[in-house]
Structures
1.
Amino acid sequence: MFKTGVYYIPMKIYQTAVISTFSILLIAAVWLSLPARESVIPAYALASKVIVIDPGHGGCDPGASRGAYVEKEITLSISKLLAQRLSEAGAMVVLLRTEDRDLVGDGFSGTIAARKREDLKLRAQRANEVKADLFISIHTNADPSPRWSGAQVFYNSSSQPSKLAAVMIQEEITQQLGNTKRKAAPGDYYILRNTQMPAVIVEVGFISNPMEASLLVDPEYQDRLARAIFAGIAQAQVRTYDAEIENYPGW
Ligand SMILES: [Zn+2]
């Protein structure tokens, strides 16, 4: 049923899942001693976490576009770069599509709108089935006016962990890219309401803004975006991980 799913399961997952207190303290000490925060990303809390990445749109649903620039292509490129970084840090990454197609499959006979609804339903369902620790959907924003720009992260307002992830990702994007003053914001979206784990939508920028659109298709800029999103996820996981350690009864 889910032909497009690909699992990245690192070989050393069981080793990395068990990290000694000493190595945590060592990593923390090195991290804190460095002046530039973004130079080292505290990735230890990502080990063994199941992270679902949802590259927005695909197949007959291109998403937003501007000339030759198409949302579904941008979201896939950035998602692949993000998947690479997360899996290298020990996370178990489920990338919901790896090519230009949706999740619905060839046998569907309904309308385009019905197909899109089914596609979204399958994306949420897939994340719920694998019991993901985090769901991250990648999209580009669009507006009739070309003047708006800047990446922005959305979360389900009823979920505190979702808000934490969104705020951390927004902060890293703001710091590392330096081209948005937008704040993480609550968003009432189907995918956020129907996923049973912390979930965020990252609108990586406005495809309707000519300058930002040309950045969004630039592989180097895509990599910077992926790095910032990765760093934000890591920061959120570190805070969650540290809170769990502090509350651990045997500590
Ligand atoms: Zn979209």
2.
Amino acid sequence: MAHGTKTYLFCLLLFALSLVHTTIGICPQLSWDMRITNGLQSGALVVYPTDKDGADLGPHNLNPNEYFSWEFCEQVTKSTHWYTLFYWQPHQQNYTVWDNEIGKECFRHYGAEECYWLVKEDGFFVSPDNDPFPKGWVKKYDW
Ligand SMILES: *[C@@H]1O[C@H](CO)[C@@H](O)[C@H](O)[C@H]1NC(C)=O
């Protein structure tokens, strides 16, 4: 193969890879899907996720059974840290919803990591799956 052709094919490959990268959003480390569900019997739950590096997803009002979800890339430096402020009148808490420790409890899917939170009257539960409560849910915090 002529040198020019090789260079051309190489560039084509790089271009194709960059397309794949931007379309499916490959992360250098794991990519995570977070989901917080209002598991209260009644009453609105406000969730307001932020991360240590300044990402601010704003407040979101959830009715019972509604959820809010977002995606992020785990940082190579292992310093990823997501907080969420929870407001359920008159209660308010600001808890860590993702760090390396919680990531270990959510990690199970290899490739499309998922971390589910369920907020109920008796506390905050986390799971790598989204099975009907209580299967697989671990209580992390109280109100
Ligand atoms: C929750 O706590 C974190 C860490 O102190 C802080 O950075 C973040 O701004 C707080 N969230 C809200 C919505 O105030």
